Amino acid sequence: MASVFPACSGSASLFQGTNFFPFAAKGSPLHLKTPLSAKCVASLGTEISVPPAVDTFWQWLKEEGVVSRKTPVKPGMGPEGLGLVALKDISRNEVVLQVPKRLWINPDAVAASEIGKVCSGLKPWLSVALFLIRERSKDDSLWKHYFSILPKETDSTIYWSEEELSELQGTQLLSTTLSVKEYVKSEFRRLEEEIILPNRKLFPSPITIDEFFWAFGILRSRAFSRLRNENLVVIPFADLINHSARVTTEDHAYEIKGAAGLFSWDYLFSLRSPLSLKAGDQVYIQYDLNKSTAELALDYGFIEPNADRNAYTLTLQISESDPFFGDKLDIAESNGFGETAYFDIFYNRPLPPGLLPYLRLVALGGTDAFLLESIFRNSIWGHLELPVSRDNEELICRVIRETCKTALAAYHTTIEEDQKLKAAKLDSRLAIAVGIREGEKQVLQQIDEIFKEKELELAELEYYQERRLKDLGLCGENGDILGDLGKFF
Q: Which top-level group of life is the source organism from (predicted)?
């Protein structure tokens, strides 16, 4: 079986939804992407005084003309940490803040800086990461008060200790996290060799791997994208707004041309409240509707209680040892897939489009191989949307169920044990780990149940040969082959 589905073990797709990091698998539009916190809840709770550094940051925004007496929000401390609180009743879609482009941290800011020339050939996120680290070390940086309120780390899994990561045993999030950390380390080593060490005058202070992880985490969790061709931009003030599962739209961030405070006209980043608020309520937005629970944990360091975000990624591959490798690859590529295909399966949702046709293609062989002939090339995908043969359908059910069984055996706890743990008071990172474990196992059980039901239906399914004979008028409605033709089947 391994030669048929050589990559059918779970393999998480990395960094979905982003377009400035290298692991992007999907292109969903992004907006604000991080809190200063580890958890997401929906109410502010008892108000707590903000730290002095926040007051200094707020005064800087006033001096820059970004906030004034008309600004409808102020910083406040809530269950998630630092956020923004409504000073008055705010209507849905009312603008709550605007930040001029001169305060944005993006590739344009890097290009205009002293390190712009040496960073010109770098990936945008690498150049902005170096810029963040360098500016944070400068006493005269324009953004020094902003840097003073940024967290040293979040509960993102990239910051977890080995002991904490051990609680993710068996999960796709663990393998994803380790891959991301190795990628960041390799990028840092290359930057150190090619940019940092050869330009000691520009980088007089040694840059450590911990600082680089800090910058990576800031960009991963706080960057906006797709704002008038802006694919990577950090916007002070705007990133104070926390996430809430109650918000079900991402249509709250946009860019306009207007007065940039007291001193100039410039592009402004504007943010509207997606909810109607009363004075004293915390302002919330939706970070990304398409992210799975594991992606929320990786990017922001929190998870939602919403089980519908739980997901598991099946990785399927056409084996190079398959005698029909070339034909199958041609068919896959003609239908938007490749030699390897990734399918994100979410809890309580139907199987993703293309999964069953791709499975049937990978498993195609024996007497079904005639469908790979060129005469069927323009129609085969339509045939693969439906069961091809009992042998083919039986094979995909068996392999997928074996994959689920193997994956479930890799966890060191059961769903029942995780559910008991959830009833206790856990620290934030253990709560994330338990939620991730439970969620992945729920999805695996769901996948197994789907294909178990398919196995039970194999005798009742209509396969290609029956459909073809019906089309030719040679098969009755009950599947009986008409006339003398029956003796050949």
A: Eukaryota
HEC sequence for 328-365: HHHHHHHCCCCCEEEEEEECCCCCCCCHHHHHHHHHCC
Catalytic residue among 146, 159, 287, 312: 287
The DSSP secondary-structure symbol of 12 reads: P
> Tell me, what amino acid is at 240?
L
Question: What are the chain's domains?
Answer: 52-290 (3.90.1410.10), 303-477 (3.90.1420.10)
Phi, psi (rounded to 5 degrees) for 285: -135, 175
Binding positions for S-adenosyl-L-methionine are: 80-82, 242-243
For 277-404, strand residue ranges (E) read 284-285, 311-317, 340-346
Is 342 an annotated catalytic residue?
Answer: no
Q: Known binding site for substrate: residues?
A: 222, 226, 239, 254, 287, 300
Which residue from 297, 313, 298, 314 is spatially nearest to 435, judged by alpha carbons? 297
The per-residue pLDDT for range 331-365, each reduced to its tens digit, is 999 999 999 999 999 999 999 999 999 999 999 99
pLDDT tens digits, 263-305: 556 788 899 999 999 999 999 999 999 999 999 999 999 999 8
